[in-house]
Amino acid sequence: MQINHSFIRRSIALIGISLALLAASAQAADITIVSSGGFAPALKALAPEFEKATGHTVHSAWGPSMGDTVNAIPKRLSRGESIDVVVMVGSALDDLLAQGKLQADSKVILARSKIAMAVRSGAAKPDISTVEALKKTLLNAKSIAYSDSASGVYLSTVLFPRLGIADQIKGKAKMIPADPVGAVVARGDFEIGFQQRSELAHVTGVDVVGLIPEEVQEVTLYSAAVVTNAKQAEAGRAFIKFLASPQAAAVINETGLEAATK
């Protein structure tokens, strides 16, 4: 899947009026955002437009929604990093809400995401159009990579056992911590890789074969919220409102996600 950058430019050109409303009587602020990788392409496209119209500055960082890697969003919050807004998998965000680490009334669902499979650019594209074809592809693959975030947890704990192949592929299927799945597939370290479509779509050196079948698909919700001790809570809320606007939806959809406003 190739991102249509001209389409994105046309789409974000329509956002000016809404952003002008957000900017009204607001002082410029430095906002620190930490996002999981699935929403990163949309955030990278939209943040500059928000900055241009409001005068705020967005400082973006990336990390998994869950897991034990040093950049995982829960780990960042636990060690007291100064963060204003998080964008992450909804279920993981809800855990942080329950712990009191996020402002409860600030949560907004931004997008839906689905799992796709990729191969190295130019490689043969195995059939995953049906559940049986997917199962056959997994059994025949020499090596399988999957993420250490929501999609990978689903694959390893739900899908592989459901297909009855967990033991058969155990030695060749590996969760990839911290590194994008697309990157290890592009290097040729793994034959096939699974991750959110939005995370695979922009990786140079891979071809996205397609989404896994609907019967076994797992839809992930991406949500945003303001951190409880945020230094720029008001500006953070304005940024979340912008990300959830109908005008931003076209850009979000173009990155491989489905905007929640759809």
Salient structural properties:
single chain, 262 residues, alpha/beta, D-Maltodextrin-Binding Protein, domain 2, 2 domains, six-stranded mixed beta sheet, five-stranded mixed beta sheet, 11 strands, 40% helix, 22% strand
Q: What is the total number of structural domains?
A: 2
Given the C-alpha coordinates, what overall shape results? globular
Helicity range: 25-40%
H/E series, N to C? HHEHEHEHEEHEHHEHEHEEHHE
The name of the CATH topology of the largest domain is: D-Maltodextrin-Binding Protein, domain 2
- Low-pLDDT parts are 21-25
Taking all Cα atoms into account, the compactness measure Rg is 19 Å
Per CATH, which architecture of the largest domain?
Answer: 3-Layer(aba) Sandwich
- The chain-level structural class is alpha/beta
Q: Kindly, what is the distance between the CA atoms of the first and last residues, rounded to a whole number of angstroms?
A: 20 Å
Biggest sheet layout: 6 strands, mixed
Q: What is the CATH top level name of the largest domain?
A: Alpha Beta
Total helices: the number is 12
Calculate the mean pLDDT score and round it: 90
Q: What order do the strands of the largest sheet run in, or round the barrel if closed?
A: 2-1-3-10-4-11
| Record field, number of beta strands | 11
The CATH homologous superfamily of the largest domain corresponds to Periplasmic binding protein-like II
Strand-residue fraction? Answer: 15-25%
